[in-house]
Amino acid sequence: MATKKVDFIVSEKGTSKAAGGFKKVDNSIAKAAKSAALYAGAYIGARGIINLTKNAIEAFGVQEDAEKRLTTALGKNADALIKQAGALQQVSTFGDEVIIGVQASIAAFVRDEGAIKRATAATLDLAAATGMDLKSAGDLVAKSLGSSTNALSRYGIEVTGAVGSSERLDTLTGNIASKFAGQAAAAADTMAGKMQQASNAIGDASEALGETFAEPVRLAAEGIKFLAEGMNAFIASVGGVGGHVTTAEQRLSALNKLVNEHADISIPNLIQIYTMLGM
Fold this sequence. Notes:
Blueprint: H1 15-74, H2 79-90, H3 96-107, H4 113-130, H5 134-146, H6 166-180, H7 183-188, H8 191-237, H9 248-261, H10 267-276
């Protein structure tokens, strides 16, 4: 790095006056540094809040999507299964949103909630014992229950009985338990497991925060969608005027027609549309 020599010319006479002059310079530099630190802190704080909000919204979105997939697969209210997922998170290293994803996979083949609960608990032990990710383990269990194929045979798990029968569920869960019972809970009872549980708890807090922003975000998204569609409709509506709008009066007339066709438009949205069009 290049260095620059700066000569300070002391114009005041006497050592006391010179010292006082330098003190003023020092104070000015200190004030400038303090201001810079405050601005930097404000910027970092603002970015932190933005990132926290963004991450919270994304976390809630993942949880909401998982619950929606489960409800759709089950074909009815899934509160009991969602409650089980939360309980299993407390005694394992798996997040409830991933557990709900497993439940949804199983629910695609099995509609009985009691059977889904048993198969889900067995899946956690299977994943913990074999080192598989939970989704992959859930897919194997769902396939073994919902088809004549035993996708678990490579792990020494025997599955018998007709597809959809209680015998098939019993042999699957029973044989997984005989080999891997308690593995999910044991994995949680380690230092790494406790750290993962803490991370899951932080994730839950983030989801709860994200939920508070959910409705405003939905409204904003709907507003943006409405404006975008309105712009497309506006452009299409003026396409017959020689392919472009030749006068401000024509633009205004076409836009008013669009507004009249959407009675639910709000004044702020109207102002924003006019602004976007440069009127």
